[in-house]
Amino acid sequence: MPPKVFVTRVIPEVGLKKIQEHCEMDLWTDPLPPPRDELLRRVEDCQGLLSLLTDTVDAELMDRAPKLVVVSNFAVGFNNIDVAAATQRGIAVGNTPGVLTDATADMAVTLLLAAARRLVEGHHYTLSGKWKTWEPLGHIGQDLVGRTLGIVGMGRIGFATARRLHRGWDMQVLYYDIHRNEHAERELGARQVDFDTLLAESDFVSIHTNLDDSTRGLFDAEAFRKMKPTAVLVNTARGPIVVQEDLRQALEQGEIFAAGLDVTDPEPIDPNDPLLKLPNVIVAPHIASATVRSRNRMAEIAAENLLAGLEGRPLPAWVNPEVEPQWRKRFS
Ligand code: DGY
Predict the structure, then answer these.
(1) Measured on CA atoms in the order 192, 158, 234, 10, is the torsion positive or negative?
(2) Which domain holds residue 149?
(3) Is the Cβ atom of 100 under 6 angstroms away from ligand 1?
(4) Which residue among 11, 53, 211 is best mutated to probe the pocket of ligand 1, counting the most ligand atoms within 8 A of its Cβ?
(5) Which of 115, 177, 262, 332 could anchor a disulfide with 258, C-beta 3.0 to 4.6 Å?
(6) Within the chain, which residues score under 50 in pLDDT?
(7) Are residues 249 and 309 located together in one domain of the fold?
(8) In this predicted model, what pLDDT tens digit does every residue of 39-71 receive, in sequence order?
(9) For residue 280, how far is the Cα from the chain centroid?
């Protein structure tokens, strides 16, 4: 009997095909995520789950699915999964690192440039018919060349973003991370600093850290007060790293110049949220990995993780490899 798996959304064909060849696949085809009760019901007698960042995979779900041996997340981030609970229950967890690094770094740079040069505000100005003449004092944004970039979380995506801005715009790079990144120091002349120094010295701050207890709410009113009034904040990581209400006030009161966000808290953001009324914020609908190559590779890796986890092979991208001894016992 092929193993039963639940796939919580239609992902690129290249991944679905692989899964279909080896599994009895239950595919959620609705464009919106499965409601909680439906997710719990569908996963009940599954050995595998392919989840999205919009699915909460917690202890309750795992207890409802006693045969579950693998959860494969179609994302590099896995804050939607209680990994400790999975490890405790002998469930392997996979993610999709590496393949969306360039796409996400490109989006961080796009948001940074667009926010610094007030691009979306200018676009709306044009659309609304307010553009009457060339304005010597209008639409003045921030310069980029030679400025200081602060990277929060100097992992793969942080490095790729810093490399683009260092090589393309000669930016000096500061970073805040619990780990030292000697590669970034060597290649980009990056300097590891504490959080307050990064806030005080950076002209641009780009967030690339995981969401966990240590980063939730990291950017709050106090942090914004320490930033330059000309600073631009970019977040392509996870919404709850920023206290959104504090960001709104900081933007409104001119504590910082602008923000470019690919992620919000919650997602989707309420279209009536006052943050969206501000001219100096750009909000994209969590699309940093949305390129053909990235999404196809994410689908492939997610499928490979799922199949490996079902067959008792090491997951190609394994979030909790420490689960292995306990997970192996599930196959005997
Ligand atoms: C991820 O992979 O974690 C991104 O947020 C979505 O691609």
Answers:
(1) negative
(2) 101-283
(3) yes
(4) 53
(5) 115
(6) none
(7) no
(8) 999 999 999 999 999 999 999 999 999 999 999
(9) 22
